[in-house]
Specification:
Number of domains: 2
Radius of gyration: 17 Å
Structural class: mainly alpha
Shape: elongated
CATH architecture of the largest domain: Orthogonal Bundle
Number of helices: 7
Distance between the termini: 39 Å
Number of strands: 3
Strand order of the largest sheet: 2-1-3
Length: about 160
C-alpha cells in the first residue's frame, strides 16, 4: 500500500491540506469541474526563492513579477521561467486563481456587491471578473452566490 502524504493544491486555491495515497493525479476539491488541477507536494518547490515568492503572492496577489524579481535576486524573465518550472503554471495564472478563490470566499461569507468584491480582490474590470470567474467555477459570480445560498438553505431545512 502506498504511503499517504499530505498535499497542497498547486495553485493554493484553497487553504486546506488533502491526505492522499496518490499525489500525482488528485483533483482539488474546490477546483472547477472543467479544471484538471492536480496537486503537488508542498516539498516539490525546491527553489527557496520560488517558495518565498509563493508566500509573498499569497499575502499580496496584486504584486507584479517585475516587483517580485528583485526581492529574490532574479531577473523578471528568469523568475517567470523558474516559477513555471517549479509550480507548473505562470505567475499570472497563479495570481488569477488566488484572486478568484478569494472572490468566491467573499461571495459566500459577505453580502458585499460584486463591484466591492472584485475591487477588493484586485480585478478592476467587471467583464474580466465575470468571465474569469465563470471559467473557473462554471457559473457567473451572482449565479454562484445564488446557487450556494440555495444549497445552504436546503441543508438547513433538511
Amino acid at each position: 500500500m502506498p504511503e499517504t502524504e499530505e498535499t497542497l493544491c498547486e495553485l493554493a486555491c484553497c487553504e486546506c491540506w488533502i491526505t492522499s495515497p496518490s499525489i500525482k493525479e488528485v483533483s482539488c476539491p474546490c477546483a472547477p469541474r472543467t479544471s484538471n488541477t492536480s496537486f503537488l507536494k508542498a516539498s516539490n518547490v525546491h527553489n527557496r526563492r520560488i517558495a518565498e515568492i509563493l508566500q509573498i503572492i499569497q499575502r499580496c496577489p496584486e504584486i507584479r513579477a517585475a516587483e517580485l524579481a528583485p526581492i529574490v535576486g532574479l531577473s523578471t524573465s528568469r523568475l517567470h521561467h523558474l516559477f513555471k518550472l517549479q509550480v507548473g503554471v505562470s505567475i499570472e495564472t497563479y495570481v488569477k486563481k488566488i484572486q478568484l478563490e478569494r472572490a468566491r470566499k467573499l461571495l459566500l461569507t459577505t453580502h458585499r456587491s460584486l463591484k466591492e468584491i472584485r475591487n477588493e480582490v484586485g480585478i478592476a474590470d467587471a467583464s474580466n471578473f465575470v468571465r474569469h470567474f465563470k471559467e473557473w467555477f462554471g457559473l457567473s459570480p451572482s449565479a454562484y452566490r445564488k446557487q450556494q445560498k440555495s444549497r445552504i438553505d436546503q441543508e438547513k431545512a433538511g
